[in-house]
Amino acid sequence: MSLGNAAAPIKRFYKEVGTAAGPAGFQVQLDGRPVRTPGRNPLALASEALAREVAAEWAAQGETLDPLSMPLTRLVNSALDGVVAAKEEVGAEVVRYAGSDLVCYRAEGPARLVALQAELWDPVLAFAQERLDARFRLAEGVMPVAQPPEALDAIRASLPDEPLRLAALNLMTVLSGSALISLAVLHGRLTADEAWRAAHIDEEVQEQAWGTDHEAELRRQARWRDFRAAARLLELVGAA
């Protein structure tokens, strides 16, 4: 059985969830039968710890399956069905984000935001320079700045080749708007919580001034759940 994107709710059709070692890795099993991805690939993983956490998502389901409550499962499905055959394209998307990376665009005000950007983003740029040998240019406001080709080449060279890691990195990049913040998580320089805050300091400052928008907060919580799952996957398979 696979976890697809059917519009109608899927009733829980299994009682027991477990994992078992197989020729392709550790399989997630429902009532002793292996789970398959929507693309009909076996849901088998090299990491036993990751397989167990994916299995725990299936075990936690109620009378109907809620795919949104299974972020690790969805990410693994994406990696096995899509990233395996499209690593170059997925990596290129990360590099494109680096070309206009969030941390390179600095606000002119207010002072609180300017200070937070320096506090939280400067260490990310230092990490990119020291660990990845990538030097980035800064800009104020929204006018685009062209990044040095050698910096983007360095980012491209630093991308993981393994599909699960690459899928996690890509997802974190899209959700945060920053390839550099996401690479800092990949290399253990930032925790998921630190990275998420760094990517959302604009919202933090706005909410301190104007209060919280309930619907915006719900959307951010949903994105955070997926971001946290991607970071957790990196912890379970080994970051870098």
UniProtKB/TrEMBL annotation:
<keyword id="KW-0809">Transit peptide</keyword>
<dbReference type="InterPro" id="IPR042272">
    <property type="entry name" value="ATP12_ATP_synth-F1-assembly_N"/>
</dbReference>
<dbReference type="Pfam" id="PF07542">
    <property type="entry name" value="ATP12"/>
</dbReference>
<keyword id="KW-0143">Chaperone</keyword>
<dbReference type="InterPro" id="IPR023335">
    <property type="entry name" value="ATP12_ortho_dom_sf"/>
</dbReference>
<dbReference type="InterPro" id="IPR011419">
    <property type="entry name" value="ATP12_ATP_synth-F1-assembly"/>
</dbReference>
<comment type="similarity">
    <text>Belongs to the ATP12 family.</text>
</comment>
<protein>
    <submittedName>
        <fullName>ATP12 family chaperone protein</fullName>
    </submittedName>
</protein>
